[in-house]
Design a protein that fits this description.
The structure holds two protein chains of two kinds. Helices cover 72% and strands 1% of the residues of chain A. Chain A contains 13 helices and two strands. Classes of the chains: A mainly alpha, B mainly alpha. The interface between A and B is large, with 104 and 100 residues.
Chain lengths: 318, 276
Amino acid sequence: MRNSSLASIERIKAAANAAQTGKPINLVPYLLVAPTLILVSLFTIYPAVGSVVSSLYRPPRNVRDPSTFVGLENYFDLFDPTHYIGSTFLQVISNTIIFALATVVVSVPLALGFALLLNRRIKRIGVYRFSLFYPALLPMIGAASIWAFLFADPLGLVNTILRTFGSRGQNWIGDPNIALFTVTTVNIWKQAGFYTIFYLAGLQNIPRDLYEAAELDGAGECQKLLYLTIPLLRRTTLFILIVSFTFGFQTVEHLQALGQGGPGDRSNLLLYFIFQSIGERRNWGYINAMTVVLVLVLMVFTVTNFLYFERRRDDETS
Amino acid sequence: MRHHNALGSRVADAVTTLLSLLWLSPLIFAILLSFRPPNEPITNGNIFFGSTITLDNYRAAWSVAPWLTHYLNSIIFVVGVLIVQLVTVTMAGYAFARMRFRGRDTLLLIILLQLMIPSGVLIVQNFATIRTLNLFDTHIALMLPYWGSAFGLLLMRQTFREIPFELEEAARIDGASLWQVLRHVYIPLSIPAYTAFALVSISSHWNEFLWPFIVTRSESVRPLTVGLSKLVATTDVGALYNQLMAGTLLVIAPLVILFMFFQRRFIESFARSGLK
């Protein structure tokens, strides 16, 4: 079976080589790939390159004048805290990093906890699974609009409950010192269930007999968790960490229903700030430079992720 | 020892119940609030129930936006994206799985750039492209950037590679064309992968907001999420949370109900979406 398949693949390869050297090139594979290639070129490569190019120019004061080439000046302005765009950009990027990191730090351990709880023989598993996972299926703006009610001041649920304990409650969305915490909470609630799925898959790949062996050696639940489960889930954890961190840089739609980045950009996130700039007449050189910064951050993580896991998978299959 | 285990699992059960309730509570309170009379915020009387149960909020929310149009637009958006995707990922997936051609690896790498630079991040430039192509405020503008899917391509390439080559060879000997080979060998054997891809594609586009918001202006093409954002904006002014919850539930209901019935399918599909 295996031999005949190899032989036939060899035959096809030989035929393909013959086609390459002698007869004209077979166009079929190119035609099959063309639609995808064109779309990716038009909506990924062209805009990525376009952002880099535009980020090197300063738009003219008058629409009819040409733009001026300014090299990396836009980037210097972005990272200059005394410049008006720099002060905003540094605020927004630090918000974004805090948002992404806090989401990772809280939701990934939560996801592991959820997965361990769900990966047992348990009654009404469907109800629990639904409860923990449904937030992941909501549109971000729908999730945010529910939380807009929970966090409303004074009519919201959270403050109503706090008042029964004698607290005045907080202005969760309008207080510049709390707003970022609020939008992060929503994201943690939404993402934890999503990452749970990957942990559940990881848990199911751990052979049962490892646990039986550990039990024979007298290991308790805690020891099994610390010395067996968590180390064996290392790859899953690394994967989830990278994915959740890059997600953190792209998840912004909830801001639309939760204060729109305010007050004064104190809860604004980079992609949402870029999105807002489309409606307002902001400097396009700066906006493109910000896009490039965002793309670079994402690429560093996704390329690492891709190289690491793709290489591992090749090792496993070959 | 046995006794200890039983206790441990009872504690775990309690923790599971508690966490599930905590995670479920936003939805429960949204539902409860949506049935309270419009002029009764939760600060008024009982925190769970109002003086009576009413559909007034649903009527009010329904009149704020043309929801049927938004529903239809969302359906056109996700179905229109999915159908074209299924064609493009099948074609390219087969080429990269089973054909040898010059520049194959380079082309694959170029396409994989889409996984590294999500198109959602390139909204400013892509918005300009839609303007240039004169597609602003059309259904096509919503769908176009998603018609090529590197994730779907990788998934299909992987799936097609696992199908025994003898099956294709046998069909070829019987004189089958490329289309017939795909139609009778590859596609029927890959239904689970297609299902997984479809669920991931549908749920991500059904929930999308930023891109549809940017490239459309008329209600006649705007999907549900954009309609909801309008409701959110009116709530900002009047603090009509009862009505906002009714509207939100109208928007999120289809996927949430679908998930209730097909939990396993969804979870398996999303698990695969990670294996990029």
